[in-house]
Design a protein that fits this description.
This protein has about 400 residues and is of the alpha+beta class. Helix content is about 35%, strand content about 20%. The protein has two domains: about 210 residues, BirA Bifunctional Protein, domain 2; about 80 residues, Rossmann fold (3-Layer(aba) Sandwich), CATH 3.40.50.800. The chain is elongated, with a radius of gyration of 28 Å. The structure holds one RNA strand of 77 nucleotides.
RNA sequence: GUAGGUGUAGCUCAGUUGGUUAGAGCGCUAGGUUGUGGUUCUAGAGGCCGUGGGUUCAAUCCCCAUCACUUACCCCA
């Protein structure tokens, strides 16, 4: 027997139903916000992720599915969606065309890690990206969209917010942070590495000892330039105005290098240890960094496996027809009728004749609303009965397809 | 990479202090006298008790190894 690879799962059964339900409704909501569908390749040049996600990130450092293809290209399976969307934005020359572009996407992402609850090697995200809008109202808007999505699916969660500053305030802050870190002894090994590669990530180290040592560290949020500070205030006031509850997490820096200014995460207490169910933020330098004309960007991604268990599905209503044959002579007619009705209805059937009782049981299993059974009597009378399985009413119809 | 937990029917799990024929619920199939369902009743099918080795007269059970799954750490969605 061949099993799926570790950390990879089939989309079937209950998960499949929920997945479709989730994607359809997220897409609907995103369209209402003016976003249009984009799909980018799963394979991209390794350089794309190295440059966008960042070499200091764990994702690039140790989690990518990376290989050399037959054309000797160094390629990776995408570990997240933003890099590809930005690349596509530049490829299409939308950066030069100017204006605003809003995209939503969904699909498989790949990270080579140890699987656990809500974390797979092939997992699925639904995400959106806005290009060309510097206004922080857009940040607020996509957070409102996320909130709307979670509300729609009945998912309880909390929003955590931070601002990472911009090219004006971040560099000086970073210098100050490094100076502070230099005065500290006893940081964990990882943090010592981070100090050199991406010092702000020291802030969200989970090591308790590091946390203590960092109690007096300078915080990003307290060292923002006036613009960033104003934007952050405006973001908060919009969220307040529309009743979005949030908390400020000064240590929220996120693991991807491309974020600046707004950074946020939605977390849930109901999904095991990995409590981030969605994350996002602003990445105003990324388009330029990947070779495009300078364009602001902001977006989010939802981890579908993280929230799938929290989705409450509406109850299935009975729908469509079940048509069965009670004698072999009737089979041909049943098939004809099935094909005809399938032009505009959900129709279930079976290819063998059996008792009316067995057919009715099968129709319940199929959750059909209407039931038709054809046997010798129907063949003789050229009529059949349609039974409404909810109301138990029966009505006689003449058929003309013999 | 590290640590714990679990591998018995399609699914969820009992069980055997080592002994001949392996258990339940759910699901599946078929029936409950004339062609009417969901909840019911009866019957049936379905197991190399994860794999390899060891101890033993005898292993699904004890020991070792291995693989898989799972949870957690790290990190992320």
């Amino acid at each position: 027997m061949i099993n799926p690879l570790r950390g990879m799962k089939d989309t079937v059964g209950e998960f499949s139903k929920k997945y479709i339900f989730f994607i359809e409704n997220c897409s609907r909501i995103a369209k209402n916000y003016g976003f249009s569908f984009i799909e980018t390749p799963i394979l991209e040049e390794t350089a794309l992720f190295k440059r966008s996600v960042g070499e200091s990130s764990d994702i690039v450092g140790k989690e990518m599915y990376r290989f050399i293809d037959k054309g000797k290209n160094d390629v990776c399976m995408r570990p997240e969606g933003t890099a590809g969307a930005v690349r596509a934005f530049i490829t299409q020359k939308y950066d030069r065309a100017g204006g605003v572009k809003r995209f939503f996407y969904h699909g498989s992402m790949f990270r080579y890690e140890r699987p656990q609850k809500g974390r797979l090697r092939q997992f699925h995200q639904f995400g959106v990206e806005t290009f060309g809008v510097e206004d922080v109202k857009e940040d607020a808007m996509i957070i409102l969209m996320l909130k709307e999505i979670f509300d729609f699916f009945g998912i309880a969660c909390k929003l955590q917010l931070n601002s990472l500053g911009c090219v004006t305030c971040m560099p000086t802050y970073k210098d100050n942070l490094i100076k502070f870190l230099d005065t500290i002894e006893g940081l964990c090994e990882d943090c010592i590495k981070r100090k050199a590669t991406n010092p702000i990530r020291v802030l969200d180290c989970k090591n308790k000892n590091c946390n203590k040592l960092l109690e007096n560290a300078p915080m990003l949020l307290e060292n923002l330039c006036p613009t960033c500070k104003d934007d952050f205030s405006e973001l908060k006031s919009i969220l307040d105005e529309f009743g979005v509850v949030y908390s400020i997490d000064k240590k929220l820096v996120r693991g991807l290098d491309y974020y600046n200014k707004t950074a946020f995460e939605f977390i849930s207490d109901n999904i095991g240890a990995k409590n981030a169910i969605a994350g996002g933020g602003r990445y105003d330098k990324l388009v330029e960094f990947l070779g495009g004309r300078s364009t602001a960007g902001v977006g989010f991604a939802i981890g579908i496996e993280r929230i799938i268990d929290l989705i409450v599905m509406p109850k299935n209503k009975k729908n469509g027809y079940y048509i069965g044959a009670m004698s072999d002579n009737a089979l041909k007619l049943v098939i004809k009728l099935v094909i005809k009705l399938r032009k505009s209805n959900v129709v279930h059937t079976q290819y063998i004749s059996k008792s009316i009782k067995a057919h009715m049981k099968a129709s319940d299993k199929a959750e059909a609303k209407y039931f038709i059974c054809i046997g010798e009597n129907e063949l003789k009378s050229k009529t059949y009965v349609i039974k409404n399985l909810d109301t138990k009413e029966e009505s006689v119809e003449h058929y003309h397809i013999l």
